[in-house]
């Protein structure tokens, strides 16, 4: 029996740190195990300029508690972006790439693109500078079922982006369906991040008896068992094109449900790598954890592998129900449950 696993220190290629007091509370949970994190730019005022990106990067790193922790910032792509500043920021590695949010697809996405073709000129710049296009791959229209938004985005937008910009490297963020897995696997210059919650939950954990569990509600929503199984197989076995991205997204517990309104987001940072290890163990694939968590992401982003290591120990870990500090109270994912691995 394996009692410990030593892996190259992982990176989280998709995480939300938010702002203000929330940022100061949650950042240390990601930096405790990760050397680098891509910090999503969908803050209340979206991060669209070099000045904003540098300030946000410094703020995150200051709150991380680790000298060698690095925040990587993608630009929030809008139809009125300052192109000169954007290109300068790519050249100077201030932005690691650009993040596409279709309008109103998720939290703070109201500044996103209404017509994606209007920002094809930005995709050309990313392609020219060999930078990454990160995509929240959903279409939000009234006639589209919430469980089909990823498929519609792939069919209506992503195929055309892929065929128009053949050398552009694209990350389909938080892949949530077997359809999304198949698209990533069968197209060149495409990778995908996979969250722990999409490999642990199905829609029955969210939607039950005409009610919604707000603490399992995320975008894209978790789907069927066939989707969960496809994601597990992609992460644990067919994983050269998939890598770790928690999409850890905190909300104050009072904001998760208000009347009939729900905030999308699951906070998994306090137990992220431990959750992944438990999933890989369930799939008898612990030997592949390092590839998924620590190798595929840097390779796709053309970055060096981390030189430091992290050890997980086979020791039961009970996940606390809440993260509480000051005025912040967040429901932790997998709260009050025991998992088999722990970083000591």
Task: Write structural notes for this entry.
A 6-stranded parallel sheet has the order 5-6-7-8-9-12. The protein has a 3-stranded antiparallel sheet with strand order 1-15-18. The protein has a 3-stranded parallel sheet with strand order 2-3-4. It is about 30% helix and about 20% strand. By secondary structure, the chain is of the alpha/beta class. The model has no long low-confidence stretch (mean pLDDT about 95). Helix 1 (about 20-30) packs across helix 2. It has helices at about 20-30, 50-65, 85-90, 120-130, 150-165, 180-185, 225-235, 255, 270-280, 290-300; strands spanning about 5-10, 10-15, 35-40, 70, 75, 95-100, 130-135, 170, 190-195, 205-210, 210, 240-245, 255-260, 260, 310-320, 320-325, 330, 340. The longest helix is centred in the middle third of the chain and has 16 residues, at about 150-165. The two termini are about 20 Å apart. Helix 5 (about 150-165) links the parallel strand 7 (about 130-135) and strand 8 (about 170). It is globular and about 50 Å long.
Q: What's the count of strands?
A: 18
Helix content: 25-40%
* Distance separating the two termini: 19 Å
Major beta-sheet overview = 6 strands, parallel
The sequence of SSEs as H and E is EEHEHEEHEHEHEHEEEHEHEEHHEEEE
* Shape designation: globular
| Uncertain stretches | none
Oligomer: single chain
Q: Give the radius of gyration.
A: 19 Å
Taken as a percent bin, the fraction of beta residues is: 15-25%
Specify the structural class: alpha/beta
Strand order, biggest sheet?
5-6-7-8-9-12
Number of continuous helical runs: 10
Mean pLDDT: 96
